[in-house]
Write a structure and sequence with these properties.
about 80 residues, 5 strands, 3-stranded antiparallel beta sheet, alpha+beta, globular
Length: about 80
């Protein structure tokens, strides 16, 4: 079992090792594992903001998997 590589979202955390997909939807952003189980959800009705958050979370997951810290400055991107 590998050590958890945690990514902090706006309203929770999830393990980058277990992420299969990060998807922007009409009502928010979903992070799912390989069993298509929801690991993280952030409601967001603004489609452009949902896509931005999806991109940021995807980049953070990839960064963690490549040895980085995966930190996102949500304030800088207008989320907080």
């Amino acid at each position: 079992m590998s050590k958890p590589l945690l990514v902090r979202g706006i309203n929770g955390i999830f393990d980058a090792n277990k992420v299969c997909s990060v998807t922007a939807l009409k009502t928010g952003v979903a992070v799912a594992n390989s069993n298509n189980e929801l690991m993280y959800w952030h409601p967001e009705e603004d489609v452009k903001k949902a896509q931005l958050l999806s991109d940021l979370l995807s980049d953070a997951v990839m960064d963690r998997l490549e040895g980085g810290d995966g930190k996102i400055d949500f304030k800088e991107h207008g989320f907080v």
